Amino acid sequence: MLQRLKDWARAIRQDVHALYLAARDPRTPWYAKAFALAIAAYALSPIDLIPDFIPVLGYLDEVILLPIAISLVIRMIPPGIMAEHRAAARAAAERPVSRLGAAAIIALWLAALVLLVWWLWPDPAM
């Protein structure tokens, strides 16, 4: 059962990526682009329709509303275009994660933190 949930979550994540790719495709109808971008932005945004700290209802949008919205938008996109972008999203998910890229991002955040502390630290000469 746990494996089925993981597979379902992985499929949802790939569909959101495919929707983002389809929204950038010029062959996708304008109304499908608008809905696809809105759904992808909502899925990736930390802001929820129903805050997660509300018991039971907090995860309602992620578990029920988001998959329904994704399936509706997928129906708006021509099947050939959606299949192409699903394959691209699947290929992107199978690529290895760059540890060097992650290290560079962590180094940038650490540098920003050091500069912020240096900037806010009181000067002993004053």
UniProtKB/TrEMBL annotation:
Organism, scientific name: Pararoseomonas baculiformis
InterPro entries registered for this protein in UniProt: DUF1232
Keyword Cell inner membrane: no
Keyword Cytoplasm in record: no
Entry keywords, A to Z: Membrane, Transmembrane, Transmembrane helix
Record-annotated membrane-spanning stretches: 30-50, 56-77, 97-121
Protein name per UniProt: DUF1232 domain-containing protein
Pfam families: DUF1232 (PF06803)
Domain of life: Bacteria
Chain ranges of the DUF1232 domain: 32-67
Membrane topology annotation: Multi-pass membrane protein
Chief place where the protein resides: membrane
Cellular localisation: Endomembrane system
